[in-house]
Design a protein that fits this description.
There is one protein chain. The protein has 6 helices and 19 strands. It is an alpha+beta fold. β7 and β8 form a beta hairpin. α3 runs antiparallel to α5. The longest helix has 13 residues.
Length: 343
C-alpha cells in the first residue's frame, strides 16, 4: 500500500495520480497538485482501487471539467462519483462514448453503514472588520451540540478551532482568496449533556455520534468580504436529521448573521461522510433561506415561504421538500427562476 501519491502521467490535459489507500484525503500534496493543475489548465485525475473512499473536502474540490476520481475495477475504470465507464485515451481518462449504463462496480451494495447526510450550502456578506467563520461555529453547535474541532488549508485540519487564528491567516492572505477545510463532531462516547436530538435538533443522544466536515472560501470585496461554505453533517440510521424544524434552527442563524442564502438538502450516505465509489441514492432539497440582497419580492407560486430570524433579518425561508422526494427539485428550479439580482 502506498503511503504517498505518485504522478503516473503528466499530459497536456491531465495530471494522473495513483493512490492506493482506504481513504484518500485532500492533503497538502494534493492541494498543491490541484493548484498546479489550475494554473496549467489541466485536470487532476486520482486513480484508486475500488475499495478506496474519498474524504468530503476532496470530493468537493474535484469540480474541473477533466478532474476525476478514476476507480480501477478489474480490467476497467469508471468515474467514482457518477458511475460512468472511463478509458485512457492517451492524454486523459475520459468517458467511454459507447457506454449506455453504469459500471458494474458502481451498482454494488455499500461496504459500510448507510445513514443520511445533511448538506448546508451558504453565502454570507461581511462588512469591513467583521469576524469571519462565526456561522460555521453556530451551525456546528446546532447540529452536533459542540463547537468545531479544527480548521486548516488542507487535510487533516490540524489547527484547533480558533476564530482569532483563522481570521489572522485570512487577513495576511488578503486580497487573495482563502480556502479552508473545517471539521467538527461529537465524541463517540457521549458525555450525556444537552437535550435529545432527532427531530428536535440540538445535541444528539449520548450514544449517537454526529460528524461535521466542510469547506469555506473567503474572498475580499469592496468594503468587506464574502464567506461561502458547504457544511455536511452525518447522521446514523438511528439518529434522523431534524428536517421538520430545520427552518426554526436556520432562523437562529439568520438572526445573528447576514445570510445572503442558505440551501439545505439531504442525501443517503455514510455517517462518517466519506464517499464510496458506488450509488448511494439521490439527494433531494429541504428548503432555502434567501436574504433581501437576493432581490426576492413576492414568493413564487407553489413554493411556500415565510420570514425567519428576528424582524430585522429580512430573511425568507422557502419550503422545497422533505429531503427525500425528487419533486422538491422542481420547486427549487421554480425558486431559482424567480430570484432576481439587485438592480
Amino acid at each position: 500500500m502506498n503511503s504517498s501519491p505518485a504522478v503516473d502521467a503528466l499530459t497536456r490535459e491531465a495530471m494522473v495520480v495513483l493512490w492506493d489507500r482506504p481513504v484518500v484525503a485532500f492533503n497538502q500534496w494534493l492541494a498543491d497538485a490541484l493548484r498546479v493543475c489550475g494554473e496549467s489548465g489541466r485536470g487532476l485525475q486520482i486513480v484508486t482501487p475500488v475499495g478506496s473512499r474519498l474524504s468530503l473536502p476532496l470530493k468537493l474540490v474535484l469540480t474541473g471539467p477533466t478532474s476525476l476520481w478514476v476507480v480501477r475495477d478489474g480490467g476497467g475504470y469508471y468515474d467514482g462519483l457518477t458511475g460512468r465507464p472511463l478509458r485512457w485515451d492517451g492524454a486523459a481518462f475520459s468517458p467511454v462514448p459507447e457506454a449506455r449504463d453504469y459500471a458494474p462496480g458502481y451498482t454494488t451494495r455499500s461496504t459500510g453503514p448507510v445513514g443520511a447526510q445533511l448538506t448546508l450550502t451558504f453565502r454570507i456578506r461581511h462588512g469591513s472588520g467583521d469576524v469571519l467563520g462565526g456561522v460555521v461555529a453556530h451551525l456546528c453547535r446546532l447540529f452536533t451540540g459542540h463547537p468545531p474541532l479544527g480548521w486548516g488549508t488542507a487535510e487533516p485540519a490540524a489547527n484547533l478551532w480558533s476564530l482569532d487564528e483563522m481570521n489572522g491567516l485570512i487577513r495576511r492572505r488578503s486580497p487573495r482568496a482563502t480556502w479552508l477545510a473545517v471539521v467538527g463532531g461529537r465524541p463517540a462516547a457521549g458525555d450525556g449533556t444537552g437535550p435529545d436530538a432527532g427531530e428536535n435538533g440540538g445535541t444528539p443522544p449520548a450514544e449517537q455520534h454526529r460528524t461535521m466536515v466542510g469547506t469555506m472560501l473567503l474572498t475580499s470585496e469592496q468594503g468587506g468580504a464574502e464567506e461561502a461554505g458547504t457544511l455536511v453533517f452525518g447522521f446514523s440510521a438511528a439518529d434522523p436529521p431534524p428536517v421538520s424544524n430545520l427552518s426554526t434552527l436556520i432562523g437562529t442563524v439568520a438572526a445573528e448573521h447576514r445570510l445572503a442564502s442558505l440551501f439545505a438538502q439531504l442525501s443517503p450516505g455514510r455517517p462518517d461522510l466519506t464517499t464510496e465509489p458506488r450509488w448511494m441514492g439521490a439527494p433531494a432539497p429541504i428548503g432555502m433561506a434567501v436574504g433581501a440582497e437576493m432581490g426576492m419580492g413576492s414568493a413564487p407560486p407553489g413554493v411556500p415561504g415565510r420570514p425567519i430570524g428576528d424582524p430585522g433579518s429580512a430573511v425568507m425561508w422557502f419550503e422545497l421538500g422533505d429531503g427525500r422526494s425528487s419533486e422538491g427539485w422542481q420547486r427549487y428550479e421554480q425558486l431559482m427562476r424567480h430570484l432576481r439580482p439587485p438592480a
